[in-house]
Every structure is written in C-alpha cells, then in structure tokens.
Write a structure and sequence with these properties.
It is built from four helices and no strands. It is mainly alpha-helical. The chain is elongated, with a radius of gyration of 17 Å. The termini are far apart.
Amino acid sequence: MSAFIRKRLVSFVIVLVGVSILSFLLLAFSVSDPAELIARRINVNATAEQIQEVRVAHGLNKSIPEQYINWVRGFFCRRIRHIHLLL
C-alpha cells in the first residue's frame, strides 16, 4: 500500500512541475512584452530607458531558467513578484 501511495505522490510531483513549467513558458513567450505593458501603465509615453528599467526591476533581463526559479520562489513565498506575467 505504501508503495502505491509513494508512486502516486511521485507522479503528482512530476505532473505539478510539468504544469508549472508549461504555464511559465506560455506566459514568458506571450506576444506582448511584460516590461512594456507595465511601463505603459505607469506612463503612457514610456521611453525605451524606462521600459528597460522596468525590465531590470522585475528581473526580466535574466535568463529564462532564472526567471522560472524566481517565479516559483515568489509563488511559494505568497508574494508573486512577477505579477505582470499573469496579465
């Protein structure tokens, strides 16, 4: 019985990680640029420098694996710092 439960838990964790990676990649490779959306909410006439500042402030200038780790960390810390990815 415990082997069955262990197998189910391992399967659950694998599916959970797979779904989180897929969700993140769909959000990360969306058509719109999250940094530009945030910058334009703050200032409609945002310059390229302001957009770059937003990109750096939210960690969008980092590699995709680093962004994913930060995204998961923010989810588990209950403070989703990359809320713009959910738009």
